[in-house]
Structures are given as structure tokens and as C-alpha cells.
Write a structure and sequence with these properties.
By secondary structure, the chain is an all-beta fold. Strands 2, 4, 5, 6, 9, 10 and 11 form a seven-stranded mixed sheet that branches. A hairpin with a 5-residue loop joins strand 5 and strand 6. The protein is globular.
């Protein structure tokens, strides 16, 4: 199983970026997939998740209204559209997958760095 994250980069505050996470190696219909982030000197934190089968989404309060998570079943890919970026959104963003009801069955991708400048 592989989760390949991409799309990070340098953007000015107020700008936008779209992250992608391409999943391969199995079907993820019984999984929730999502994004976490880790800022320098801080612990990894939850950003957003989407339940693959239903499309139900959840967001951290800090990104609600600015970030949108989505999935493309045909491409086995999830996206994180990030708008109105703030300096505090600077972090390494990780995608992850976890089988619903089986916390031990989880996968992580490599991170992609998002840097928001003033």
C-alpha cells in the first residue's frame, strides 16, 4: 500500500494550494482518508478526513471554511483544496488512511511541505 502526497509549495498569505494524495495497493472503500499536519516544533495535528464510501467530511476548526477535502474514486486520489492560507498553516502535510473500526489498519504517506509567507 502506498500513499503518495504532492502539491506542497511556497505561497503567499491569502493564496491557495491544492494537495493530492494518490493511493495504491488496495481498495479503500472501507477506509477513511485524510490529512494531518505538523508545524515546526509542534505535534502532528488533524486537519480533515473523508469517508471514502459516503463522502462524509470532517474538518479541524482551524481550517473550517477555508479548506475542502474531496475524493476522486476513479483515480483513487484525495485532494485538499486550501484557500485563504495563513502563516500558521505552514507545516508538513501528511495523508493517511485508516480502515473504519480498525484503528490498527492504517497507512501514512510521506509529507509534503506547505510554506505560507507574508
Amino acid at each position: 500500500v502506498q500513499l503518495q502526497a504532492s502539491g506542497g509549495g511556497l505561497v503567499q498569505a491569502g493564496g491557495s494550494l491544492r494537495l493530492s494524495c494518490a493511493a495504491s495497493g488496495r481498495t479503500f472503500s472501507s477506509y477513511a482518508m485524510g490529512w494531518f499536519r505538523q508545524a515546526p516544533g509542534k505535534e502532528r495535528e488533524f486537519v480533515s478526513t473523508i469517508i471514502w464510501r459516503s463522502g462524509t467530511t470532517t474538518y479541524a476548526d482551524s481550517v473550517k471554511g477555508r479548506f475542502t477535502i474531496s475524493r476522486d474514486s476513479a483515480k483513487n486520489t484525495i485532494y485538499l483544496q486550501m484557500n485563504s492560507l495563513k502563516l500558521e498553516d505552514t507545516a508538513v502535510y501528511y495523508c493517511a488512511a485508516q480502515r473504519i473500526g480498525v484503528p490498527a489498519d492504517n497507512y501514512w504517506g510521506q509529507g509534503t511541505l506547505v510554506t505560507v509567507s507574508s
